[in-house]
């Protein structure tokens, strides 16, 4: 490596970094500091971008998982609606159905069976296995006492925060979520 001239005293020195042996002033430290600062700053910026981007991706992925779990409700509710309409076409009346399962499952799944499931089977619909939501049907009557229709409900709390999302379907309309989309 050729000798480098000290910018302060003009004497040759054996390296371009550190102190000059003649005037004892720092040589090249400014460039070295800038290079190291830029290098470390760049690394920090990349690391922060990965962390923030990764965090956003994980939140996005988490939301997508919750949305997939919650999608059980409109599917089952529309099937219950279809069963109610078919039952009415054959027998001339709608069927009120109790809460089933009796509580909202939360993060876990629960079996859709037992005494609460029997009226659903009588209607011609069964969840066949486990569910994340609870379902029920209320009858709508006119002031004259005649049946006018039904309201089918689904309630889910797939994130387990105690705030359930609620879906509703009626004789004339398919399932629709009543709570904000951010409620899981």
Which features characterize this protein?
184 residues; alpha+beta; 2 domains; five-stranded antiparallel sheet; two-stranded antiparallel sheet
Q: Report the sheet-strand fraction.
A: 15-25%
How are the strands of the biggest sheet laid out side by side?
5-8-9-10-11
What is the radius of gyration? 34 Å
The number of domains: 2
Largest sheet: 5 strands, antiparallel
Structural class: alpha+beta
The backbone outline, from C-alpha atoms, is rod-shaped
Distance between the termini: 67 Å
**Which regions have little confidence, pLDDT < 50, spanning 5+ residues?**
none
Write the element-wise H/E pattern from the N-terminal end onward.
EEEEHHEEHEEEEE
Could you characterize the architecture of this molecule?
The chain has three helices and eleven strands; from the N terminus they run ββββααββαβββββ. A five-stranded antiparallel β-sheet has the order 5-8-9-10-11, with helices on one face. A two-stranded antiparallel sheet has the order 1-2. It starts with a strand and ends in a 7-residue tail after the last strand. It has two domains: 4-67; 71-177. It has helices at residues 29-70, 72-91, 118-123, and strands at 4-5, 12-13, 18-19, 26-27, 97-100, 110-111, 130-131, 133-141, 147-156, 165-170, 176-177. The longest helix has 42 residues, at 29-70. It is of the alpha+beta class and 184 residues long.
